[in-house]
Amino acid sequence: MERTKNQQFFIYLGVIAVMIFTLAPIILLIIATLSSGQDLNSKTLHFLPSHWTLKNFTDIFTAGSNDASVPPFMQALKNSIIVSLSTTVLTLIIAILASYAISRFRFKGQNGLLMSTLGFRMVPEIALLIPLFVIFARFGAINNLSSLILIYTAFNLPFAIWMLQGFFRSIPKSMEESAYLDGVSSLGVLIRFILPISLSGIIATGIFVLLASWDEFMFASIFTSTYDSKTITVAISEFSKRGMVNFGMQITGGLIASLPPIVLALLFQKFIVSGLSEGSEKG
Amino acid sequence: MIKKIRPYVYLVPAFLVILCVTLAPILYSIFISFIDLTKNVHKLDNPNLWSFIGFTNYINVLKDSVFWNSLVKTIIFTVVTVGFEFILGLAIALILNEKFRARGLVRGLMLIPWALPTIVNAVLWKWFYDADHGTITGLLAHLGFTDGYSNILSHTTSALIAIMTADIWKNTAFVALILLAALQSLPKDIYEAAKVDGAKPFQRLFSITIPLLAPAILVALIIRTMEAFKAFDIVYIMTGGGPGGGTQLLSFLAYQQSMVFGNFSYGAALAQIMSIFTMIFAVIYIRIFYKDRG
Predict the structure, then answer these.
(1) DSSP of B78-133
(2) How far away is chain B from the Cα of A66, in angstroms, using its nearest Cα?
(3) Where in the sequence is the signal peptide annotated (chain B) (predicted)?
(4) Quick one: closest CA in B to A8, which residue?
(5) Set of chain B residues whose Cβ sits within 8 Å of the Cβ of A25
(6) Does the beta-carbon distance from B282 to A118 stay under 8 Å?
């Protein structure tokens, strides 16, 4: 729609307001990570540091190496990478198989299954935290990255199945039917026809699972008490617990933890936006 | 025969994981909510010590003023944050749907708050509101809204407002992204027709755009309502439920009762009560989904 000059002016005013709203906190975050502890702890309002420093970054990458009361950030980063990547791969494999069954075969209980999938997606995490903690503690499966991976996989499955079966359903069945006539097995049809065509949907689903497991805090904080098993969200939360709050480290750790999801979101922008709208149409 | 069992074979892994890590724990949690575990969690390990006390745990929760305070705070938190996120998100989506320079870049930047981990968002806003060196605390003092630096997170009302602003900032982006995607898929010719009919911009917004966006709006609202209702991270980091229970949202109360005080029965009963609320949302959600599909 064409806009008059006057309308154009207000549109740009609106865009500028939106950008300030969106970016101001992020810019303040970046500036803070480059400020000295003295600047961060001063009681005067200032937006730029008195001098720029990378000390927060050197501090965080050596965290825990000479002070046992500070969680080692690098270890936590590694743990988070292991947990979120493993969760994503495991969730995708299991969800692809299940979505294939739901979208391609007719069987008893199909609708009920799909609806209960939606229901499981809505269970408040706290309702699972209590029993899972009791069970995992009983079996000594605390402080174990595999336990976190299993739990995150279970949490993400309903959502992943819901998304993927929607993508699979939108693929026409004609090609598969001729493949079946040629004697290709059902697993062969899945791998050779369905997976390549729905790759963008699978990537979108994978990114959502990856971001959700990278983000998770409540379970990680309860299920990990050793530095060997803590994830990045837990490490960041603990930079403040030991006596004084160390904002420099918390904020710098926070910025580093935000980079992978932000970069992924920007790189796969198209997938995410279509995934969000697909998700909002299909549930 | 093989044809009949084939779909089930593909479902086995998903079924096993959900059975063991979701369904069984839910049933176990319901079981825990009906037995007396006061002061001794280890009673769980020994079936001889299980004493079923019916709905006593639920009655204890419902008789507890702490629960009612928490429920009220959770409802305020949910209604206010979702309300603001909807209004701001819709406004942003409408602006970003216009034609302007660097539109792709601006739309891309909207993803940043959405992608920012919740825990980082909480840490960031806790720092903004810090009593001694927070940016917002400083701004409020300099602009004369507060008498010098004040401890925003240590007053009941201002602490609740503080955690709500943090949530609103991050999740407005989510609502804006969903509504923008829906706006882009709207047919353009309807607007041209309305323009010919002489409809004013605001009339177009309320009589055309919002009704056409209704499905996306409803889904965004329901997803946000359910998320806000179980908000936890932001409370844990920013206020720890304080001051004096001022920001003690339900998830945090259940967490505190079970994980901090070891009161698993109370926590489990409270979690079931929360699940009932969520089920109500779920029913609404599924109804809308089916109505949508016709």
Answers:
(1) HHHHHHHHHHHHHHHHHHHTS--TTHHHHHHHTHHHHHS-HHHHHHHHHHHT-TTT
(2) 24
(3) none
(4) B100
(5) 113, 124-125, 128, 169
(6) yes
Question: Do A205 and A95 form a contact (C-beta atoms < 8 A)?
Answer: yes
Residues of chain B in contact with residue A281, where contact means CB-CB under 8 angstroms, are 215-216, 219, 292
What residues are paired with B35 via a beta bridge? B52
What is the ipTM, given to two decimal places? 0.90
Distance from CA of A32 to the nearest CA of B (A): 10
In chain A, the residue whose alpha carbon lies closest to the alpha carbon of B46 is: A138
- DSSP for A103-128 reads HH---TTHHHHHHHHHHHTTS-HHHH
- Spell out, as residue ranges, where chain A has pLDDT lower than 50: 282-283
Min Cα–Cα distance to chain A from B232, Å? 8
pTM: 0.90
Residue A70 DSSP symbol: S
* Burial class of residue A54, CB neighbours in 10 A (0-12, 13-18, 19+): exposed
The 3-state DSSP class for residue B196 equals: helix
* Residues near A252 by beta carbon (within 8 Å), at least 6 away in sequence: A33, A56, A57, A59, A60
CA distance A65 to chain B (A): 23
Give all strands (DSSP E) within A122-266, no chain letters: none
What's the confidence (pLDDT) of residue B141? 84
Q: E strand or H helix at B290, and its extent?
A: helix B264-293
Is B182 in CB contact (< 8 Å) with chain A? yes
What are the Cα distances from residue A96, in Å, to A86, A156, B9, B68? 15, 13, 13, 43
Q: Partners of B52 in the beta sheet?
A: B35
Q: Do A3 and B130 touch (CB under 8 A)?
A: no
Q: Which structure tokens are listed for A93? A: 């494999």
Residue A40 CA to residue A278 CA, distance in Å, equals: 43
- Mean pLDDT, range B270-279, rounded to an integer: 91
Domains of chain A with CATH codes: 68-282 (1.10.3720.10)
For residue B244, pLDDT over 70 is answered with yes
Residue A264 near residue A210 (C-beta atoms within 8 A) = yes
- How large a percentage of chain A has pLDDT more than 70? 93
Q: Please indicate if any CB of chain A lies within 8 Å of the CB of B189.
A: no
Write a three-state SS string for B16-80.
HHHHHHHHHHHHHHHHHCCECCCCCHHHHHCHHHCCECCCHHHHHHHHCHHHHHHHHHHHHHHHH
Q: Is B258 within 8 Å of A129 when comparing Cβ atoms?
A: yes
- Which two structure tokens, joined as six digits, stand for B258? 């079970």
Is B26–A127 a contact, with Cβ atoms under 8 angstroms apart? yes
β partners of residue B171: none
